[in-house]
Amino acid sequence: MTDPALRLLRQDRRLAELAAFPFDFDLDRAAHGHVEEVRLASGGPLETVAGDDTGGTYFVCADGSVLYASSEGAAGIIGSSVDEALELVIGLPGWRGCTGLSPEDGEERILAHVAELEDEIREYCSIDEERDELRAALGFPARSPVELVVKLRAALLRTEPDFVLLNAEEGCAYDRMGPPGPPVWEPVLAAGRADLARLREGDRTAWREVAEDPVRRRVTLRAAQFDRVEGDLDLLRHLLRHETRSSMTDELRLAAVLVGLHGDTGDLPLLLEVRETDFDTACGLSDVPEPGAGADELRQWARTLDESMFGADPSDEPLSTWTDLARDQGMTDLARVTLIRELDRLLMDRSRLRRPEAPRTLATAPLRGLARDFEELGDLPQALRAQRLYAALQETAWDRVSARHTLARLEREAGRLPQAADSLAAVRDTLAAPGDDSLRHWQRVNLGRYVAEEHYRLALALAGAGRLEEARALLTAADAILDELSDNAANGVRELAGRCAASVREAAS
């Protein structure tokens, strides 16, 4: 770390004491750490450099940025370096009360708010002479409160997605400190909007490059969904033809709808050709109007699909639309943070899962979708959070077994072998006493095979970890399940069963 002002504080006890009081940047508190174990969602390193008397902590991130975390569960970037953060806390000692301010508030309001905060501080201690002394010693200019507020706001806006703080044990995210960021679709659509503008300008290189790149094509179609222009028909036809390379995607259907909304019956042959691309497109676009349909029928077909599946408001799109596109564009941290915050909301308020048509029942599919999304992102801890709640909310014996089997697999892959063993024990308990008839044929179908396979895979992992007693016990349970399976279901497991038995014997010898 090369911050000159921080180095001076560490070398000069008088300056360090001034920073600690009255400016509440206490280097000595770094030794105590934060009030709880934390980590960045992005996985980057954190170094504790100071704390304050409210239990808050100042961390330095890999790029030198300073992340402040309060003891109440809020966090935000307050400077691009420790020196910049120090300049803020010294020049704006009431900075925590300024996180809601914006340059749009105007100089008069900002100055009045800062003056009120500083007057409250002066009721308990002096700050003016101390501020002058520290600024002079550390080489900081006397910036106006308005300039510092502008710098603070710009720093806070950098917090997401790269610097989101998580509770290390539970995995939930700290609240965002300061102003809300842009909706997720804005950064996701940015490249598509730029490509759409190039297509509209007639850039033939862009026409070729966008059409041939499946991700750019999809994002550009989404940009066109929310910025509809009468003159786009030719470029929409072009993108529609090329989107058939990806078979039946949502964007293929979107492109067909956007073309159909123009009501040009000359596009019917194109739409029918697209429909017949393969079996999936034939099913997904089965209701495309047949040859001879009029312009009104074509528009009505497109409007109906548009109203039920698309529309022109990005806030109406399922969250997965944006997280999938973010991931595909390499915006992994943006996708991860968006999904974490959605999972946090569901964990805090399960009523969000209630079915509108049946308020007493829960729609748990969003949780399963979140678990899959996190797994695809390689974030097993978050996948486990989602899958754990999903499993807890299942009502039928079949669904409980299926959900806990998946939970056990994720726990095994995350190296949480005892937890995986507990999940499989719960699976066996449900198989033994299901409480309903949903599992009456489990021995004859793939569910039984999958359950047996996971028992053997976990037994192998336990043996490899030197947990031989647990491995032998699980192998016995796996063999018992295998004995109950039908011949067809068991055949696919026998090779794994033999390999597992041999591995456990070898580990015990």
Report on this structure.
- With 509 residues, the protein is α+β, with helices and mostly antiparallel strands.
- The protein folds into three domains: 4-176, no CATH class; 185-316, no CATH class; 394-508, Serine Threonine Protein Phosphatase 5, Tetratricopeptide repeat, CATH 1.25.40.
- 58% of the residues lie in helices and 7% in strands.
- It has 24 helices and nine strands.
- It has helices spanning 4-11, 13-20, 82-91, 107-122, 128-138, 145-156, 185-200, 204-212, 214-225, 233-243, 250-260, 268-275, 279-284, 295-309, 319-328, 332-348, 365-376, 380-392, 397-413, 417-432, 446-464, 468-484, 487-491, 494-508, and strands at residues 38-40, 46-51, 57-61, 66-69, 74-79, 165-167, 175-176, 354-355, 358-362.
- The strands form three sheets. The chain has a five-stranded mixed beta sheet with strand order 2-3-4-5-7. Strands 1-6 form a two-stranded antiparallel sheet.
- Strand 8 and strand 9 (358-362) form a beta hairpin.
- Helix 20 (417-432) runs antiparallel to helix 21.
- This is CHAT domain-containing protein.
Can you tag this structure with a few keywords?
single chain, 509 residues, alpha+beta, Serine Threonine Protein Phosphatase 5, Tetratricopeptide repeat, 3 domains, 5-stranded mixed sheet, two-stranded antiparallel sheet, 9 strands, 58% helix, flat
What's a quick, concise take on this entry?
It is built from 24 helices and nine strands. By secondary structure, the chain is α+β, with helices and mostly antiparallel strands.
